[in-house]
Design a protein that fits this description.
By secondary structure, the chain is an alpha/beta fold. It has 8 helices and 6 strands, in the order αβααββαααααβββ. The strands form 2 sheets. Strands 1-3-2-6 form a 4-stranded mixed sheet, with helices on both faces. The protein has a two-stranded antiparallel sheet with strand order 4-5. The termini are close together.
Length: 320
């Protein structure tokens, strides 16, 4: 159930931030653009924040709401990053990432460089994952979720689709990443659900993982199209400005009016494999952090025998 007082305070402070509250962008010591992510240039790093800058923690402290505070700390403990849903009173464009201070240059002996390099890739992947959620909130990318929803005949919620497509994009950037296991686990659970609902077993094999990857490729292609459109629009504006200057000054344009926009080609997704060490293969009930009782996949990975392990998952914060 939503915390009404916390929601009201969050909405109020969103309009008028408290005096002295540090909400400045986190300044990374090195660029997280290390994965050859086609969408990276579209991520607004001015929206990058640490967990300690989460306004919900601040508001819960102000209200003296110990339960809300502990709940949010547990949310952070079980995830490596999150954003807020657009329906939340908090800014859905900001992303909150754990362990940002561990993003450092990989130097030293070979083994140390590899260890730090793997850490950097993991954090960079988390940053990309969360910013991808904010991009799916934009009208130009919502059609990808809508198309996937229609392909599944509405059997999977748009909330779950967005999370799983975002995870598929993670594995396309870093092939072999452990998060790919969660896609296969979801597929097993989905087909078992169909059987439980009475569908004959021989009719149930649905390759949901393949469909999620299809949508992730559609996302990256759409990113490339949007970037090309922006480039063409900027070239057009430059030409217009040059023509205007030529008319007002009587001189020649200050730029070469070739109208060229380049080849329109972009780098392929990196194919190197991340070896981030062993990960416990578990069934996951990961949610993109909805309110308690909501459906979907979130940050806590459960062991087969119960309990929770600190396997980092990414997603969206619950609207509490």
């Amino acid at each position: 159930m939503a915390n009404t007082y916390l929601d009201r305070l969050g909405a109020l402070r969103q309009k008028k931030p408290p005096v002295g509250w540090d909400d400045s962008p986190y300044k990374v010591t090195m660029s997280p653009d290390i994965l050859n992510d086609p969408a990276f240039s579209e991520y607004d790093l001015s929206q990058l924040r640490t967990y300690d800058q989460d306004p919900r923690l601040r508001d819960a402290t102000t209200l003296g709401d110990r339960l809300a505070y502990l709940d949010q700390k547990w949310q952070q403990h079980g995830s490596s990053g999150y954003t807020y849903m657009p329906s939340s009173p908090y800014n859905p464009n900001k992303v909150y990432i754990g362990d940002l201070d561990k993003l450092k240059m990989a130097v030293g002996p070979g083994a140390e460089q590899k260890k730090q390099g793997d850490i950097n890739k993991e954090i960079a992947s988390t940053i990309a994952h969360e910013f991808r959620h904010t991009m799916f909130d934009k009208p130009e990318y919502q059609g990808i979720i809508e198309a996937a929803y229609n392909r599944f005949g509405g059997a999977i919620s748009k909330y779950e689709l967005e999370e799983m497509i975002t995870r598929a994009a993670d594995t396309q950037i870093i092939p072999g990443h452990w998060i790919g296991d969660t896609l296969d686990e979801y597929q097993d659970d989905y087909n078992q659900r169909l059987i439980d609902e009475g569908m004959p077993a021989h009719l149930t094999p649905m390759n949901t993982t393949k469909q999620f990857h299809r949508s992730a490729r559609e996302f990256f292609n759409k990113v490339r199209q949007e970037k090309l459109k922006k480039q063409q629009l900027q070239n057009f504006k430059n030409i217009e400005a040059a023509e205007a200057k030529k008319i007002t000054t009587g001189g020649s344009p200050s730029i070469t009016q070739t109208g060229s926009t380049g080849s329109g080609r972009f780098k392929d997704i990196k194919t190197s494999t991340l070896d981030y060490g062993p990960h416990t293969k578990t069934k996951t009930s990961s949610r993109r952090h909805k309110a308690p009782g909501g459906s979907g996949y979130g940050p806590h990975t459960k062991k087969a025998g119960g309990g929770i392990i600190d396997k980092p998952l990414m997603g969206r914060s619950r609207d509490i």
